From TrEMBL:
InterPro entries, sorted: ADH_Fe/GldA, ADH_Fe_C, ADH_Fe_CS, Alcohol_dehydrogenase_Fe
A Pfam family it matches: ADH_Fe_C
A single GO BP: fermentation
Record's protein name: Alcohol dehydrogenase 4
């Protein structure tokens, strides 16, 4: 609204006149701050709360009496959002983690490389995989680096589910080639490996030393993460997932020091993504958003990010899978995965990821596919503990008509419809329907469950399952049908 659109009452005009007449700090005082302060009326010596309680606004703001048109804490509010956060009274507040700089939209890569050239960054190690190099996708980055005179070396030894050995090989390459920074190009695997490389280069030791939360002492080497998929959000989060090939487990490194300095999400780089990869990464993003929303560490900020991500994914993922050339669908999916990343970067995740990490580490399976298969099973259990949240999930997924519950409670109806919608979306984009189809062995469920219960991602799940309950969820995911 323009300033001229405001209208003041008589009291407001007098107050505005007094404010505009106040002398600036340097006016007529010779810079003497004490003289300026002496002209400012002193407020009564009482608390801010007491002062605010004395402000006479009742003639302007008409607050309904209790029970008249007001939703109480813990109930569904007028706009349909269930408040489900711990009050944290007397606590120390919450963290909300953000990437340093994010460049988004068509053409973002050009701007990012131009900015890199202006910062005088020395030689960089470009971390990617052989497929992106062989199909020519990497040239979209290297051509720009050449154009702006940025020296680089390519390290393309990354595989899906990067290993600790690959990280340490990258560390050796940085030291041998004299690189001063790292640029990752690809999806979650190159990003995570690059994070591990940059972290060890700055802190020393072995990547295994940093498993867990905030184990490093120093920020990693300067890093730019150029994203070519719409799913992991690793380009902007404090999460780094690396497989320990000796233990056959995925190590979760959760550390603010592994947040890239610059995240680049250019949908033009995602147009060539094949349908299967589009589907898997899109379902990964959906899992991030749903798990962050029901997380015990969620906040109103992470809720806003998560719910809008769910809305965008529900609307655009099918189109992106069906028509990879649809730039609008690609653009909206890049925003969706970024929003989901903003949500789980602070709210963390849940037992879908805790279990999926074990499948990826044990069988070297695609992370997004594992998430997609496990998502409806775990959320069905979660709904028993946070049923009202599924009303919001249903709304975000575009589901209507919950008022017609057909004999079921509204929350129970929402739970059934949300689970059905997740399974329908998985079927529509070609996700296998169960763990049996992925070659998972039932005899491994005991050890998989044990390892899942050690995964840091499970700490913020709405409930903490027993080992038997985790095995049961693996069993259900093994046999489920779309």
């Amino acid at each position: 609204m323009r300033a001229s659109a405001y209208r003041f009452s008589g009291r407001g005009r007098r107050l505005a006149a007094r404010c505009s007449a106040t002398e600036p700090a340097s006016a007529g005082t010779g810079g003497d701050e004490k003289k300026v302060r002496s002209k400012i009326p002193k407020a009564p010596a009482r608390s801010v709360r007491a002062h605010l309680q004395g402000v006479p606004l009742d003639h302007i703001v008409k607050v309904p009496k209790a029970g008249v048109g007001l939703a109480s804490d813990g109930t569904q509010t007028a706009h349909g959002l269930n408040y489900h956060h711990a009050q944290n009274a007397g606590g120390e507040g919450y963290y909300f983690y953000m990437p340093t700089v994010s460049l988004m939209g068509p053409g973002a890569l050009k701007k990012a490389v131009r900015d890199m050239g202006g910062r005088g960054l020395g030689k960089v190690l470009v971390v990617t995989d052989r497929v992106l190099r062989e199909i020519g996708a990497l040239s979209s980055l290297t051509d720009l680096l050449d154009e702006h005179g940025i020296a680089y070396e390519v390290f393309d030894e990354i595989t899906p589910n990067p290993t600790s050995a690959q990280v340490m090989a990258g560390v050796e390459a940085v030291e041998r080639l004299g690189c001063e920074g790292v640029v990752s190009f690809g999806g979650g695997s190159p990003h995570d490996c690059a994070k591990g490389i940059a972290l060890v280069c700055a802190n020393g030791g072995h990547i295994k030393d940093y498993e867990g939360e905030n184990k490093s002492a120093k920020k990693m080497l300067p890093m730019v993460a150029v994203n070519t998929t719409a799913g992991t959000a690793s380009e902007m989060t404090r999460f780094c997932i690396v497989t320990d090939e000796e233990r056959h487990v995925k190590m979760a490194i959760v550390d603010w020091h592994v947040t890239p300095d610059v995240a680049v999400d250019d949908p033009e780089l995602m147009v060539g993504m094949p349908p299967g990869l589009t589907a898997a990464t899109g379902m990964d993003a959906l899992t991030h958003a749903i798990e962050a929303y029901v997380s015990t560490a969620s906040t109103p900020i992470t809720d806003a990010c998560a719910l809008h991500a769910i809305k965008l994914i529900s609307r655009y993922l099918r189109t992106a899978v069906r028509d990879g050339e649809d730039l609008r669908a690609r653009d909206m999916m890049s925003y969706a995965e970024f929003l989901a990343g903003m949500a789980f970067n602070s709210a963390s995740l849940g037992y879908v990821h805790a279990m999926a990490h074990q499948l990826g580490g044990f069988y070297d399976l695609p992370h997004g596919v594992c998430n997609a298969v496990l998502l409806p099973v775990v959320q069905l259990k979660n709904a028993e503990h946070v049923p009202d949240l599924f009303l919001d999930l249903a709304e975000a997924m575009g589901i209507e008509g919950l008022g017609e519950a057909g004999g079921l409670g509204v929350a129970e109806r929402a739970r059934e419809i949300v689970i059905r919608a997740i399974r329908q979306l998985s079927r529509d984009v070609g996700i296998p329907e169960n763990l049996e189809a992925l070659g998972v062995r039932r005899e491994d469920f005991e050890v998989l469950a044990e390892n899942a219960m050690k995964d840091a991602c499970g700490m913020t799940n709405p409930f903490q399952p027993t080992k038997e309950e985790v095995v049961e969820m693996f069993e259900e995911a093994y046999a489920q049908k779309h």
